[in-house]
Amino acid sequence: MKKRTPVSAIMSTDLVTLNHTDDLVTAEKLFKEKKIRHIPVVSGDQISGILSYTDLLRISFADAVDEDESEVDTIVYNMFTIEQVMAKKLMSVSSNTTIKEVAEILATHEFHALPVVDEGKLVGIVTTTDLINYLLQQF
Predict the structure, then answer these.
(1) Is 15 inside any structural domain?
(2) What CA–CA distance (Å, rounded) separates 122 from 42?
(3) How many domains in the chain?
(4) What are phi and psi of 90, to 5 degrees?
(5) What is the pLDDT of residue 61?
(6) d(Cα 121, Cα 48) in Å, to the nearest integer?
(7) Do the domain assignments include residue 109?
(8) Does 1 reside within a domain?
(9) Where is the CBS domain (predicted)?
(10) Which structural domain, as residue segments, surrounds residue 69?
(11) What pTM did the predictor assign?
(12) What residues have CB less than 8 Å from 102, skipping those under 6 apart?
C-alpha cells in the first residue's frame, strides 16, 4: 500500500452539485437518479455546504418510499430550504492531502464525505465508499 498517495487518486471529480437556491425535491431526485449519498451545495465554484441523503431522511419519510420511485411527496420539502437542512460547518481537504490523512479524518468524525477544495474552488469529493474501494484494490 502506498503511504503518500494523494486523495486526488480516489476522489470523485465528476461532481453532482446543488445550488443553494435549489429545492429539496430537486435534491432527492438527484440522490435517487445518480445513486449517491452526498451532494455539495455551491454558489458558483465556492462550496457553501454539503447535503446528505441522511439529512433528507431526518425531515421526511423518504426512506419509506421505494428508492426507484421517481415521484416525491413534496409537502415536507416545501417547509425547508436546502440551506436549512445542509451541513454548513464543513471540514475540507486539498487534492494533495494523503489518503491516510483523509481516512484519519473520516474515522474520527461523524460524517462520511469530505469536499476537496484547491485555492477556494471545489474540485472533488471523497467518501468513505471511495476509501473502502481503494482498500479493496490493495488486496
Answers:
(1) yes
(2) 8
(3) 1
(4) -100, 145
(5) 64
(6) 11
(7) yes
(8) no
(9) 11-67, 86-139
(10) 7-137
(11) 0.86
(12) 7, 93, 114, 126, 131
